[in-house]
Amino acid sequence: MFGKKSPEVIVAGAGPVGQLAALALAKRGIPLRIVDTGVWACSHSYALALHPGVIPLLDEFGLSEAALERAYPVKTIGFYDEAERRAQIDLTNPDDPRQCMAVLRQDAIESLFEKALNDAGVKIEWRHEVADIASNVDHAIAKVNKLQRESRGYVVAHSEWVVGKTEKIDVPFVIGADGYESEARRSMGIAFEETGPAEYFAVFEFKTDADLANEMKVVFAGDGANVLWPLPGGFCRWSFQLPEYESRDARRDKDRLLLSGGLTGNNMVDDAHLAQFIQERAPWFQGSIEQIVWRMVVRFERKLADAFGRDRVWLAGDAAHLTGPVGVQSMNLGMAEAHDLAFLMNRVLHEGAPLSDMETYGQQWLSEWRRLSGLTGGLKPIDGCDPWVAGHARAILSCLPAHGRELDKLAAQIGLGF
Ligand SMILES: Cc1cc2nc3c(=O)[nH]c(=O)nc-3n(C[C@H](O)[C@H](O)[C@H](O)COP(=O)(O)OP(=O)(O)OC[C@H]3O[C@@H](n4cnc5c(N)ncnc54)[C@H](O)[C@@H]3O)c2cc1C
After folding, report:
1. Does 179 contact ligand 1 (Cβ within 6 A)?
2. What is the pLDDT of residues 67-93, one digit of tens each?
3. Ligand 1 binding pocket includes 331 (Cβ within 6 Å)
4. DSSP string of 284-343?
5. Which pTM value belongs to this model?
6. Whose alpha carbon is nearest atom 13 of ligand 1?
7. N or C: which end of the chain has fewer CB within 10 A?
8. Where in the chain is the domain with CATH 3.50.50.60?
9. What is the pLDDT of residues 95-148, one digit of tens each?
10. CATH architecture under which domain 9-48+106-191+306-372 falls
């Protein structure tokens, strides 16, 4: 259906955000192409939950029931220290029995989206790269490079991906959902400034007999944030912040995500460290540790673009913002941004709205991210706030699974406000 017409939008990147943008465009009948340099979609559970406010967006594509069926529902966030439970946020809604945070592997989210795109007649063009994007008020021009594997060398034979064929595409809009090293952001000369120091986490996934009780537990202990996520099938994920880690391993500073997995070369993720983290930071966790299926040290940068785009090129997701992992904010807000972009692009393309409407998109999301990044003052205690919560207000902000007014409501439950 879409392949035959000239595309009106090129979506660069087929992560969760790019795929949701493509779904929302297809739903509005907008011809598009979605291309990704990757060989296929992600194959692990990186970001692992859908915010309560994002599930209704999936209704539009008939995907919310399928997502909820595969998910583990989280109904509360418990805040702890080493000794005990200190506060709780309720994520449910008496008027909507299905409301929860849905814990679902990122690869499961992406495969749901890709199937829905296929059903809508949109095929993701894997191994294609968007490059050299230029834009003015009338249109955008971009190269789409088809990548192919080529054998190189004769001393030690190896193969690498090289550009096989290049097309120059002229389109009304480009969506840059191309992740933290965004070519769209770079092409538009948009700065990506740090909003805070990078954070390192030791992450472990294992089977446990603990009663996970439909709760995500955030533990402020060991000079950082630690999180226990319940996962489907009796598994859980513990993430422990490593406040001292960066200074020990400064040469990795340029990587956004330090993917140091397995036991070789990294004792921070050995069994002894797992036991030690639990004993020191969450001794109240008495669950068994069986079948450790994933262990890794991951680096999370905190950055924000100084604009969400201009003219005919607009960013969404990690291309525009990076933050800590606890609140799963970058992916979820990215999906909401992608949804907004499709709505506004349709208005400009087919309903006579002025291009300046796109500026509103940029301003609104930039101001929301400035708020979320604590750049506009952060969360503050309001009357009656528990002193322990007040002391952790800054750290709590990036742990909340919401944005906009829903974020204010969650914060208000524990006596915090902007
Ligand atoms: C190991 C790991 C653990 C993580 N854990 C968490 C967590 O616990 N909580 C959390 O919130 N987040 C976590 N994240 C981050 C989370 O995965 C991202 O926030 C999320 O994937 C962002 O989605 P996105 O679609 O914006 O970008 P991405 O998922 O990065 O997708 C961008 C896509 O663009 C493609 N691309 C790049 N350049 C081009 C180009 N020039 N042309 C075409 N395609 C291009 C890439 O191949 C990629 O598929 C983790 C990430 C990793 C790697």
Report:
1. yes
2. 999 999 999 999 999 999 999 999 999
3. yes
4. T-----EEEEEEEEEEEEEEEES-SEETTEEE-GGGTEE--STT-HHHHHHHHHHHHHHH
5. 0.94
6. 47
7. N
8. 9-48+106-191+306-372
9. 999 999 999 988 889 899 999 999 999 999 999 999 999 999 999 999 999 998
10. 3-Layer(bba) Sandwich (3.50)
